[in-house]
Amino acid sequence: MIQQLTRQIQFFFCLALMLFLGNGLVLAQMPFEPPQQPDFIPGEEATPAPEQLTEEEQKRLESLVPLLAGNQELWAIGEFVHFGSHSVPHLIKALKMPGSRIRFNAAETLSMIKDPSAVPALVEVALQTDEESKVRSHALRVATRLDPNQVIPAIKGMATDPNSTIRNTAVFEARYVHRKEVLPIIIGVIPDPEQYVSITARDSFWILTRFSGPIHNWEISTPEKRKEWAKEWWAWWEKNKDRFDSRPAPAASPEPPANLDVS
Predict the structure, then answer these.
(1) 84: how many CB neighbours lie within 10 A of its CB?
(2) Which of 48, 169, 207, 237 is in Cβ range 3.0-4.6 Å of 137 for a Cys bridge?
């Protein structure tokens, strides 16, 4: 009786296995039909900005300036970007208005419009010692992207600022300025009291010149040590400064390797 029951169980198991394999075989042989693709509908092109603004449109831009801070700031930024270079005078005005949010967003909007005529106003903001550091730093970043050849006065002034964040921004943005004048400015920041500022200056100098200096342990360095090490950069500069000229160069700069170790 037990043997008969065992044989029945084996029979049903084999039958179930054959059905399972058979169904799998059928499924494997079914042709694949890709889903039907929807019809492509091209989007509408944006309305181009007018060549000349009417008096009503000028008033419209003036009314948008206060909206750069608040719930409608993204919409206001989009409107300014739509009007392009026509918006630049209004955004330059916004750089001097009360409210750091308005000034920060004005600088951000100028970066989207990409009009180099705004650089002098941005440099002026970057050099204002009574301005908030985030606004000053952003103004320098935007100005450097718009025209790096106009920001050397700002980098020079900010490199000696009492605020370490400002000094760090100055030497970081200096790596995008391919001009001979910025190299002594960067060397002057290598002995900075703040270690992270000093390391930023060292890396920017390497990006512009490929000179990394002798091996030093920057991670545990002291201001006194960095002052001593900076002499090596000055010595290299005296020997090699004639290799460089002050002609404007492309804004793109090579990125350092991710595992760069020049310490």
Answers:
(1) 15
(2) 169
Whole-number Å distance between alpha carbons of 8 and 175? 82
Report yes or no: 95 and 121 within 8 Å, Cβ to Cβ.
yes
Number of C-beta neighbours around residue 127 at 10 A = 18
Q: pLDDT for 27-49, tens place per residue? A: 455 676 777 777 766 655 656 66
Closest CA to 190 of 211, 176, 178, 35: 211
Q: Which of 168, 173, 159, 230 is nearest to 194 (CA)?
A: 168
Classify 182 as helix, strand or coil: helix
Task: Give me the pLDDT at residue 254, please.
Answer: 41
Residue 248: CB atoms within 10 A of its CB come to 12
Cα 130 from Cα 151, distance rounded (Å): 19
* pLDDT for residue 135: 94
The mean pLDDT values, 10 residues at a time, for the chain of 263 residues are: 62 62 53 73 63 80 87 88 89 91 93 92 94 94 94 94 94 93 94 93 92 86 90 90 66 41 34
What contacts 11, CB < 8 A, 6 or more positions away? none
Task: Give me the DSSP letters along 17-84.
Answer: HHHHHHHHHHHHHSPP-PPPPPPP-PPPPPPPPPSS--HHHHHHHHHHGGGGSSTTHHHHHHHHHHHG
Residue 103 sits at φ, ψ, to 5 deg, of -65, -40
Task: Specify the pLDDT at position 214.
Answer: 85
Per residue in 50-64, pLDDT (tens digit) is: 677 778 888 888 888
Q: How far apart are CA 30 and CA 225, in angstroms?
A: 75
Return d(Cα 208, Cα 179) in angstroms, integer: 9
- pLDDT mean across residues, the chain: 82
Residue carrying structure tokens 């008033």? 59
